[in-house]
Each structure stands twice: as structure tokens, then as C-alpha cells.
Amino acid sequence: MGADGRLLDVEAIDAHYGRSQALFNVSFDVGRREVVALLGRNGAGKTTTLRSIMGLNTVSQGAISFEGNRISGRRPHEIARSGISYVPETRDPFSLLTVEENIMLGYRDGSPYDLKRILSWFPDLGGLMQRRGSQLSGGQQQMMVIGRGLAPGPRLLLLDEPSQGLAPVIVKMVGRVLAELRGEDLSIVLVEQNLNLALSVADRIVVMENGSVVDRLSAEEGRRHPERIERYLTIH
Ligand SMILES: Nc1ncnc2c1ncn2[C@@H]1O[C@H](COP(=O)(O)OP(=O)(O)OP(=O)(O)O)[C@@H](O)[C@H]1O
């Protein structure tokens, strides 16, 4: 834990793709058991921020700390082992493995999340354990990869656009699962384009544009003044 109880500290990070700069001086923090939503248009830098936390992108300036220890500069597998899971936008299911194998791939001894507990949040997957990862609907795949992210027992889950491409009724289901996870000793950084989903599960909102943080507000403030966020989103 950081000095003042913060779980994750992103401090003034820059990131580049070749010579093109994608993140400019991005700072935010996440407390224990807190859900922080990163909002902004396509290309705002949200995925790059998650990938930087996970060590999949190099941070060229600034630092990232988790539980008070610096993790920027470490390798992704070390960062995962320290207690962070990343569920990418692309979901990346292992198509040839069964649903059960996909979920349990990352299970670690001592994780509070065994298959039974994971299925308690995703009962719809219960009858599909022996299906292959490729034989699922988009919503079922999303449940499976969130389950895979939980299996190691992380204290921080990085979720990249879990609602993307899903029918509204399935988006609601994802929202319900995230709300249920609020009871766990777990923090979440949620990247979303769906403002309603973000406002319903987040404690705080960080708004990004063109690689920079342009606003920070509580979800409560966001619900009262959605226009403060909407101007930075593409409303469909
Ligand atoms: N692999 C890459 N190579 C070069 N530039 C990239 C790469 N990935 C992202 N970028 C650029 O970095 C900037 C930030 O992109 P990023 O994917 O982080 O945004 P985002 O807010 O997550 O958007 P999206 O919702 O589309 O994923 C954009 O200008 C994007 O074009």
C-alpha cells in the first residue's frame, strides 16, 4: 500500500509509439476497493495507459507504483505476479482451450477466486465449461475473460471496454457483475465509452483527451453533470 493508502499511483507518465507521443504527463491514483473509470474518445490514450500500467508499453517519463512499490520498468509477468490483471479490449480468448481451461489458466494457489466462486458471478458460463473459447457469444466471451483475469486473485483489475460490441441487455449484465465485485477486496480501472455503465459502477472518473487527463471528478458529480464528460465523448 502507498503511504496514504493508495493502491496504484500513476505519476506524470509519458508514453510514445516510435516518435509519436501517445501520453502526456498522465497522473491519477486508485485507492483500495475503488473503481476508477477512464473515459475519452477513441485515441484519447486509455488503452495506452492500461498497457503502460501492465508493463506492455514503456513509460518514457514519470513513474507507476503499486502498493507503494515502483512497477514501471518491470516486465509484464512480474507486474501480473505482483497482483494486477489486465483484460484487453480484444479479449484474446484461447480459442482451442475449453472455457474452464481459459478461466483457470492463471489460477494461483492462495487465490480467493476458484472456479466455483468465479461461476457464482457468471452463472451463465456454468453449462458451457467444456465448450471451446471460440464457441461463445461476445457476452459469454467477455464473462470468460473477466473470469480469467480474476483467477490469479489480483488486487487490481484493468478492464478495457468490457461493454464493447455487446447488446444492451448484456451490457447491463456486465454492469451487474462489476457491481457485485464491489464486495471484494479488489480495485478496478475501467476503460469505457459507455458513460451510463461507467457512472453506475465507478467511484471516480478520469477524463482523457489527446493523451492528457483533462478532468477528474467523482461519479456523483458525473451523474449530476454528465455534460462535463459528454463533451469529451463521441455520443452514439
Ligand atoms: N501500436 C500503435 N502504434 C502507433 N500508434 C499507436 C498504437 N496504438 C495506439 N497508438 C496511438 O496512440 C494514441 C492513443 O491510443 P489508445 O489506443 O491508447 O487510445 P484509446 O483511448 O484507448 O482509444 P481506443 O478506444 O480506440 O482504444 C492514438 O493516437 C493512437 O493512434
TrEMBL record:
Gene3D superfamilies, per the entry: P-loop containing nucleotide triphosphate hydrolases
Superkingdom field: Bacteria
Keyword Transport attributed: yes
Pfam family, one: ABC_tran
This protein's record includes keyword Transmembrane helix: no
PROSITE patterns the record matches: ABC_TRANSPORTER_1, ABC_TRANSPORTER_2
Gene Ontology molecular-function annotations: ATP binding
InterPro entries associated with the record: AAA+_ATPase, ABC_transporter-like_ATP-bd, ABC_transporter-like_CS, BCAA_Transport_ATP-bd_LivF, P-loop_NTPase
Keywords associated with the record: Amino-acid transport, ATP-binding, Nucleotide-binding, Transport
ABC transporter domain mapped to chain residues: 5-235
Stored SMART domains: AAA
PANTHER family: ABC TRANSPORTER ATP-BINDING PROTEIN, HIGH-AFFINITY BRANCHED-CHAIN AMINO ACID TRANSPORT ATP-BINDING PROTEIN LIVF
Family: Belongs to the ABC transporter superfamily.
Cited function: Involved in beta-(1-->2)glucan export. Transmembrane domains (TMD) form a pore in the inner membrane and the ATP-binding domain (NBD) is responsible for energy generation.
The protein's name in its UniProt record: Branched-chain amino acid transport system ATP-binding protein
Organism of this sequence: Bradyrhizobium elkanii
